[in-house]
Amino acid sequence: MRKPDRADVLVIGAGASGALVSLALAGRGLKVVCLDQGGWTLPANHPHFSRDFQWQRQNRWNPEPERRRGESDYPVEGNQSHALMWNAIGGSTNIFGALWPRYRPSDFRKGVEHGLAPDWPLGYADIEPFYDESDRLIGVSGLTGDRALPPRRSPYPLRPLPMGPCGRTIGAAFERLGWHWWPMPAAVISEPYDGRPACNACGNCGSGCPRGSMAKMSLTIWPRAVAAGTDLRPFARVERIETDPQGRATGAVYIDRARGERVFQGADIVVLSANGVGSPRILLLSKSARFPHGLANSNDVVGRYLQHHTLVAAEIWTGEPIHSHIGNAGAVISCEFAETDVNRGFVNGFNFNVARIGPAGTEAIGSFTNRPAPWGSGHHAWFRRHFAHGFGAFAIGDDLPRPTSRITLSETERDSDGLPAARLNYEPHENDWRMMRFAIERLKDLAQAANAIDYTINDYCDQDGTYRTPAWHLLGTCRMGDDPETSVTNRWHQCWEVPNLYVVDASSFVTAGVVNPTSTVTALALRAARHIADGFTELRTATKPIMD
Ligand SMILES: Cc1cc2nc3c(=O)[nH]c(=O)nc-3n(C[C@H](O)[C@H](O)[C@H](O)COP(=O)(O)OP(=O)(O)OC[C@H]3O[C@@H](n4cnc5c(N)ncnc54)[C@H](O)[C@@H]3O)c2cc1C
Predict the structure, then answer these.
(1) What span, in angstroms and rounded, lies between the C-alpha atoms of 340 and 343?
(2) Per-residue confidence band for 548, with pLDDT thresholds at 50, 70 and 90
(3) What is the spatial distance between Cα 224 and Cα 296, in angstroms, rounded to a whole number?
(4) Residues whose CB falls within 8 Å of the CB of residue 339, separated by 6 or more in sequence, listed in order
(5) Of all atoms in ligand 1, which is nearest to the CA of residue 274?
(6) Is 41 in the pocket of ligand 1 (CB under 6 A)?
(7) Domain annotation for the chain: domains and CATH numbers
(8) Is 472 in the pocket of ligand 1 (CB under 6 A)?
(9) 214-236 pLDDT per residue, tens
(10) 355 CA to centre of ligand 1 in angstroms
(11) How far is the CA of 281 from the centre of ligand 1 (A)?
(12) Neighbouring residues of 248: CB distance < 8 A, sequence distance ≥ 6
């Protein structure tokens, strides 16, 4: 087996978290190697420049790997949620929505609040400086002053994106209800920034952003991380992490998919950043005589407590055109129902992501609520009344962590290199069902307040009652904690059982939080990188986790 020179740090996964970790560590002078199973998603590869750009979103640009079935993907089996992700340099940021709210202090304190989920071993104040640093590196647009999100020490790096008639219509509907709303913070640049052009409001955020105006890490962070010295290797699919007799990670075996050979990359420290499905999959694949249940998994926590936010959604059409086919996807956020109020019959809360619907094809297939435009004689009349008149509202809920919602290895399916696929099981807690039922009623209130001419609601339940939702936030499957019995890592993302192995992505989240996770993913990645760089000399030989 080929064995290239040893690295100081090996990062597995070049998505949002892997990009930030690599940049920060290479910037501190460490020799960093980063492996990703996918290649570069070049600007010209995006469908934006093709006449069938909408059709491509249904197949080769589908956010669901099960439908896309690319060579760089791995199957995620299971009959409940559909895991969404993109496997390439930049990871899922190649196709994400770039909505960028921060977790609020209460998101880290559910144990104290109601006890149905644990507290995080850290709080908002521990992460705050890294949120600011990540916002500056990535380029975030927003309007400072939202009292429902934590106060910011520094203003957003860029002024807010234009509201346009769609944002104003949504805001007016929330005003009528007396509910909180605010322009959605977005990792989409409203002005030229860091050599990248401002958003041109093309409206096709659903297929990523070939301009780099959205924070696609392959165009934002990766050029810098490579310039800082990271040895980034595409088409390098990690098969397993190896350990020595002392139980320390020695590196990883990967399949060089371009050359068709296995390679061992040694490193003093290994950072796993392969997302909430990929990271537990690799740990489970790395079982050995010393770790028979999978690496860092003697307590059987790896893969458990999967959360991906509950989701119910509405598509709401107004009588006047609101140009919702152009502009960035995320228009408005509302945290009106974000905090626990037990009088509603449940704990935790949800936010409304209120979004522009996007181009004609998205409208026609009813992609927000799965109700396609009528086909046949009534189609054109329907389309004239609906196209560019509507907006989508997603109620994204803080689901309770459950040990039975989990990632395991498939017993039957394999990826294109023959490695076992992931299997996903997810079932909402009874509390989550109550929250979703409440949210559906509030979506109806919103439709009424918007003077809707029509609306549809999607509860994501099949006729047999099975909840099948897109799962774009993959959280909690290697959770951090203060107790080695009930968590996989400590508060620095360092595995309790393997002190030179870090899990740095949303797998380490303890609870889902009430808003979109990636600003917290990137902030935590910078924080973990600081910890690794500061303690590097000690970590090279440590046999126990370093706590402070
Ligand atoms: C359609 C969609 C819309 C989204 N919209 C938003 C949004 O608006 N706001 C928000 O906050 N979040 C959003 N998200 C979620 C966001 O994309 C993720 O939170 C973020 O990308 C997670 O970063 P990550 O580094 O953990 O994982 P990823 O970005 O998914 O990267 C993981 C990387 O690991 C690699 N990998 C996995 N296994 C292996 C292996 N065995 N060997 C080598 N490499 C491997 C993969 O190829 C991939 O590149 C969205 C996601 C999707 C899919």
Answers:
(1) 9
(2) low
(3) 32
(4) 106, 349
(5) 34
(6) no
(7) 1-46+60-76+83-141+210-300+475-543 (3.50.50.60)
(8) yes
(9) 999 999 999 999 999 999 999 99
(10) 20
(11) 14
(12) 498, 499, 500, 543
